[in-house]
Amino acid sequence: MTDATRTDRSGQAGRGAGGPGPGTGPGRSVGPGPGVGMDERQALRARRDRVRRWAWGIPLWLLALLFLLPFAWMISTSLKPDLEAFRIPMQWIPDEPRWENYTEVLFGENSILVPFGNSVFVAVLRVLGELSTATLAGYAFAKLRFPGRGKVFIAYLATSLIPAQLLLVPRFVYFEKLSLYDTLWALILPGMFTVLGTFLMRQYFVSQPEEFAEAARIDGASEFQIFFRIYLPNAMSMISALAILTFVWSWNDYETPLVFLSSPENYTLPVGLTSFTDENGAMAAGLSMAASVISIVPILLVFLVFQRRFVRAMTESALK
Question: What's residue 199's pLDDT?
Fold first, then answer.
């Protein structure tokens, strides 16, 4: 066999096994190399990711705008006279914004400043009380060992099955005998103890490693030191989430102050919003919407301050 024949056979074998490619003569000039193929795949993957993001993003943006429409209508109506509030077709941007609606609800005859202050007072004390009781009770149910711990916790959870409306009359009678009726403490005290807050904090403390407490006990730490110095600092994200939820519940509570308060000077903001009526007794839309816009400002501020910890707490809860 001659050298030319061996060279021709080895070339055919290489093309048959690997096809055209680098180092095989004609393959380098005709087909794409490995680097070119990888670039094309990456470009194709990037195009698919862009299409997928747009396919999910556009419906989500439309859904978000749909949820924002009531707020846009509220702000638009707060700058209109009452006669133009329900005009069809609706004018989203009024020709002459009526800023007097805001000065009227702030400094007029039915000013919301007193109900606003009452709502802030009630919400702050309820948040502080709720965080104190929920963290202590949650830690006790999660980390402390005492007889009947599981049964007591189940019995405590079972109280959440009772509708809150069924407890209004017994609470009314009880608070009247304690001379708490028509005072803000009738709203604050029941809000300091909630089953959901204790349950959330208990579930968080259960997920924390027991080795931290055992190591601290070996070093001579008491249970209060273990709670305040080890577990409580790690629970700040869940505490922030619970604070936001409690503040929103207290701020938007309409039923409880409607039953337990009778003096206008003790009204909270949800009840105070009902005082804006026209000469016929109907709702004054412009004034009511201006007061509603002012009422959502504290909730936005609280959420903006704690949003990072709130999102972190929700993410950790979802992962666990």
Answer: 92
